[in-house]
Amino acid sequence: MNSKVTILGIPFDNMTRKEFLKALYERLNTGQKTFLVTANPEIVMYARDNPDYYQLLMQADFIAPDGIGIVKASHALGTPIKERVPGFELMLGLLEIADLEKKNVYFIGAEEEIIELTISEVKKKWPDIKIAGYHHGYFNHADPEMIKKVKKTEPDMIFVAFGFPRQEKWISNYLSQVDHGIAVGVGGSFDVLSGKTKRAPKLVQYFHVEWLYRLIKQPSRYKRMSVLPKFLQEIYRQKKKDKVQ
Ligand code: UDP
Description:
This protein is α/β, with parallel strands linked by helices. It contains 13 helices and eight strands. It has one domain. It has helices at 17-29, 41-49, 51-58, 68-76, 87-100, 112-125, 144-152, 166-175, 189-193, 202-206, 210-217, 222-225, 227-244, and strands at 4-7, 10-13, 34-39, 62-65, 104-109, 130-135, 157-161, 182-185. It has a six-stranded parallel β-sheet, sandwiched between helices. Strands 1-2 form a two-stranded antiparallel ribbon. The radius of gyration is 18 Å and the shape is globular. The protein starts with a strand and ends with a helix. It binds uridine-5'-diphosphate (UDP).
């Protein structure tokens, strides 16, 4: 059931959102330690230029195709991915599971005010989640004390919102020191959950142009998004290479 589609060296799990959640649910219930990465074209390009980060991604148990760019690339390469699986939606699905199963969840990342707002939202929407603890994301990420502090609470799930590559580095260290739990890097998701950043309107989501919407709302993202044309160029280079072989 779980096939992989490799895009510029990154092996994506070719599963629908439902299948991802089912697989995660099974691992949660069997107590298996799980590293979930949700990767968009920016992450793929970053991993291409940074071998240490690439190695971190290779430790992941699941890599979800976050963003329409990955899905389009998979089609262009002739190895279509079933659907895009936005990190934000996987997080909502996991919170739903945590609520139903009364699981212990830790939240770490974002600014102090945002994490406080995120926690009140979680309490409102998913009252049966046990909040293992929470912390803002502006501390020294290399400090082992934070890992010790989180570890003591034995969370079943931990959401880490530092943005890439910081969150994956921290998760890798964290998972090397615990023996259970699902850990996932969720980028700017707390900003959305807290209401600070609005998710794109439904119509924009439908037409798969959230990237354009975000760019207009937050022009500061331009520099980061400027890797997208390079991503497309690399995909077409790969396609040509595949044809020759
Ligand atoms: N962030 C953090 N600690 C840091 C840097 C960033 O907690 O040292 C948070 C930031 O407040 C935001 C989230 O990480 O909530 C995502 O940041 P960014 O937009 O830079 O990353 P992306 O969404 O592109 O992964």
